[in-house]
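Something for you to look into today, if you have time. Just paste the record in under my message, thanks.
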Amino acid sequence: MKLEVRDGCFGYAGKLILRDINFEIGEKTIMTVLGPNGVGKTTMLKCIMGFLKWVSGENYLDGRKIASYTDREFWKKTSYVPQAKRSVFSYRCIDMIVMGLSSRQNFFEVPSREDYEKAEHVMEMLGIADLSGKYCNALSGGELQMVMIARAIISDPELVILDEPESNLDMKNQLRVIDTIVKIKEEFGTSCLINTHFPDHALAISDTTLMLGAYNRKLLGKTKEVVTEENIRQFFSVCSKIVSLRISSEEYQTIFPYKVAR
């Protein structure tokens, strides 16, 4: 699997908010699109998935223009996890997850016993088997986000695109989602493209990072080279300290923001 964005530009009313976006993602890779609110992170994901159209530039998947794929072809290779929101759907969790197989089924095809067994297996792997019979509109935000991730990976996609998957969640559920993204890469062999405004999350799990800022500023590279104290100051207008910790033989890095940059 190889996703490429070449010379992507997008804007409204003649004003570009994204200019000359270029990057590629290979197999078994986590890439983060990182930046403060309002710099076009979600817009960029929508342009990649075809919900919006670049003013200029192209997306390629495995060397072929994404625009040339049918919806079914594209969504067989790719899955999408939108921002966490309260569900109004009264589906059981296991039914919601089975819906993730729709790109591989005929329009009137009824899910099979094997489909439900696969959903149970995915829920078990993600540690949410206890949610199987619960209804989506009765879940907490963290539980619902885990169900949506399970729905995204049940079809064995080559790439999962996640739009701020940890936003609006408490600390525990943020960590749970971040750990799950690593599991998707390591255990399922699936690449992930994540949009976030949390630099410490990018630093914790990403192989590469595209940092976006105001006035079309951008940086692309290995995460440890992009997520630095100076770049956080430049792009987020925040002074911070990156601290390394060793806890029970494990190495961690965390970011302490301590004041607004002047």
About this structure: The first strand starts at residue 3 and ends at 12. The CA atoms of residues 143 and 199 lie 23 Å apart. The chain has a mean pLDDT of 93. Residues 237-262 form one domain.
